[in-house]
Each structure stands twice: as structure tokens, then as C-alpha cells.
Design a protein that fits this description.
The chain has helices at residues 11-22, 55-64, 79-84, 86-107, 140-159, 187-196, 222-237, 256-267, 291-297, 305-319; strands at 2-6, 26-31, 47-49, 67-72, 111-115, 162-168, 170-172, 202-204, 216-217, 219-221, 245-248, 254-255, 274-276, 285-286. The chain is an alpha/beta fold and 324 residues long. The relative contact order is 0.14. Belongs to the NAD(P)-dependent epimerase/dehydratase family.
């Protein structure tokens, strides 16, 4: 059985590919390399260079590589930018997913794990987010992910598609020194690039009603995230019961201030973050329960905060240079 990983040359997707390979599962990558990197794909894993917007290409890939299931990680993932580029976001995330599902239906591929997002919740008014927390996305990105979940649900009703969607927050760390987070918008790359460039990292607001005044979020190690995707895929392959959605959450969260202190300790670079104004719409705390995923997907937080930071820092430094 070969699994197709869309977006498998990206930071998260490349870790999913490695986790599949470690389980002895055949893997094929489809990626347009708009944010992914060819070097992130392990040697021996076929890389189909192209977009999920190219329906005929997706169809050929499913057929030529005898694909039995899909882990769908590809997408436009920048929530803030999506507000300025809504049509681009919907085209990549909604039209692209529709193309993928259409090709799967045509080729009889009946299993899919969808990499969704906690952005579907918007700013929840609860201390601990569960799968049943009301969905109220606040960006085209979050909306597009929720629409993706709806499409899987509706295909399940119409065709019997076996599916699950994994919602998660902030992904950090590295499970291998040759793959690291290259996003220009994520916290760890921003902090590391600042330090490597001799600049002082910045915190947006330190007057929130949290223990140290900074925002609290779920921060998940990418290797844990990848492992959960693979367990979900194996449950689908074995026709085991599976929920339509799971939150991959820590249950308690980490503050931005704690991250900054851990970065200073791990890197050995002594710094005091600059404090900037709050960003509009940033809630004080968003943390999700991972209980359902722990029950079904062997979901666990296997890494301490220091280990998350250290693995990310070592991979970033192995890449060389300052800046991104």
C-alpha cells in the first residue's frame, strides 16, 4: 500500500513522510515546492513536482503509483496573509482539496487523513478547547480548513470515503537535523533568525491575564504530530473505528515568555525580548484537549519545551547562515 503525502516536501509533510517510512509504508510525495524543499524529501521517495490544482496530474499520480490512501498536508497556511489574499487561499485550500477528492473518487482511493487547523475555532471563549467547541474561524485560512472538513464529511456520506481531520495549533521542533521550519511567519523561525542576525526577538504584549502576562498556546513537537498522522492512516487502512476529527492539543499550553526563556537557555544567547504592542485579536490563551487523540491515535507530548527548542535550534543552525 502506497500513501500519497500532498505537501510532503514541506516542514510538516516531510516529517510525516519520514514517519510513514519508519513504519515500512510506501510513500509518494506530491508538492509544487512553493514553500516545500526538494531536499526535505528523503532519498528513494518519489517526488511528483506539481500542484493539487492540476487535476489530471493528481489523477495520474494516484494511478501510476497505486495509491491506496492520502495524507493531505498541502495548502496555503498563512492565516494572517489569507486576510489579504482570500481568493488565493480558497483556490489553494478549497479548490485544491476538491480536485484531490474528485481524483480519489475517480480512482477508487477511499482513505484520507486531512491536516486541518485549530484556526477553525477562531477565538474560543473556553479554557480548554474540545472537538465540540463551536467553530468560528476568523480568517479565510481557518474558513478554508473548515470547508475542507465539510467536504470530507460529505464525501463520506456520498461515497463511503473513510476519513479523519486533525486539528492542531503551533508546530515546532525538528525530528531530523535536515528538515526545519522555513515559515517566515512562525514564532521559532522569527526568534532564531533575529538571534542569528544579531537582533532582539520581540513579544507582542506582556499584559495579558496569564501567569507571566504573555499569550499561552499549544506548542507541539513536529515528530509527535507526524506520528499521529501515521497512526490515523493505519487505523483507516485497517478499517478500525475512527472519529471524524481530533484535536492534537497539549492540555496545558506554554507561554511566549516561557519560550523566550527556554530559547535563551538552549542557545546560550542572553537576551531580554523587546515588548511590542498587542496584536489585534490575539486571545490571552488558546489550549486544546488531546484526550480523544490520546485514546485513539497514541497522541502524547513526548518532548519537553527545552527539547523542542533544542531540536529546532540545532536543525536551524545545521542549515547555516543568518536569516531565512
Amino acid at each position: 500500500m502506497n500513501w500519497l503525502v500532498t505537501g510532503g516536501a514541506g516542514y510538516i509533510g516531510a516529517h510525516v513522510v519520514r514517519a510513514l517510512e519508519a513504519e515500512g509504508l510506501g510513500t509518494v510525495v506530491l508538492d509544487d515546492l512553493s514553500s516545500g524543499r526538494r531536499a526535505f524529501v528523503p532519498e528513494g521517495v518519489p517526488l511528483v513536482h506539481g500542484s493539487i490544482l492540476d487535476g489530471p496530474l493528481v489523477d495520474r499520480t494516484l494511478h501510476e503509483y497505486d495509491i491506496a490512501g492520502v495524507i493531505h498536508v498541502a495548502g496555503f497556511k498563512y492565516a494572517g496573509v489569507s486576510v489579504q489574499q482570500p481568493l488565493h487561499t480558497y483556490r489553494q485550500n478549497v479548490t485544491g482539496t476538491a480536485n484531490l477528492l474528485a481524483a480519489m473518487q475517480e480512482r477508487g482511493v477511499e482513505r484520507i487523513v486531512f491536516s486541518s487547523s485549530a484556526a477553525v475555532y477562531g477565538t474560543p471563549d473556553v479554557d480548554l478547547v474540545t472537538e465540540d467547541t463551536p467553530k468560528s474561524p476568523e480568517s479565510p485560512y481557518g474558513e478554508s480548513k473548515l470547508i475542507g472538513e465539510w467536504m470530507l464529511r460529505d464525501q463520506g456520506v456520498a461515497t463511503g470515503l473513510a476519513h479523519t481531520s486533525l486539528r492542531y495549533f503551533n508546530v515546532v521542533g525538528s525530528g531530523t537535523p535536515d528538515v526545519y521550519d522555513v515559515s517566515p511567519h512562525n514564532l521559532f523561525p522569527l526568534v532564531f533568525d533575529a538571534l542569528l542576525d544579531g537582533r532582539t526577538p520581540r513579544i507582542n504584549g506582556d499584559d495579558y491575564p496569564t501567569p507571566d502576562g504573555t499569550c499561552v498556546r499549544d506548542y507541539l513537537h513536529v515528530a509527535d504530530l507526524a506520528a499521529a498522522h501515521v497512526v490515523a492512516a493505519k487505523r483507516l487502512a485497517d478499517d478500525l473505528p475512527i472519529e471524524p476529527v481530533y484535536n492534537l492539543g497539549s492540555g496545558d499550553g506554554v507561554s511566549v515568555g516561557e519560550i523566550m526563556r527556554a530559547v535563551a537557555e538552549v542557545t546560550g544567547i542572553d537576551f531580554t525580548p523587546e515588548i511590542a504592542a498587542r496584536r489585534p485579536g490575539d486571545p490571552a490563551r488558546i489550549v486544546a484537549s488531546g484526550e480523544l487523540a490520546a485514546r485513539d491515535l497514541d497522541w502524547r507530548m513526548r518532548y519537553s519545551l527545552a527539547e523542542m527548542v533544542r531540536s529546532a535550534w540545532e536543525a536551524r543552525r545545521a542549515a547555516g547562515g543568518g536569516g531565512s
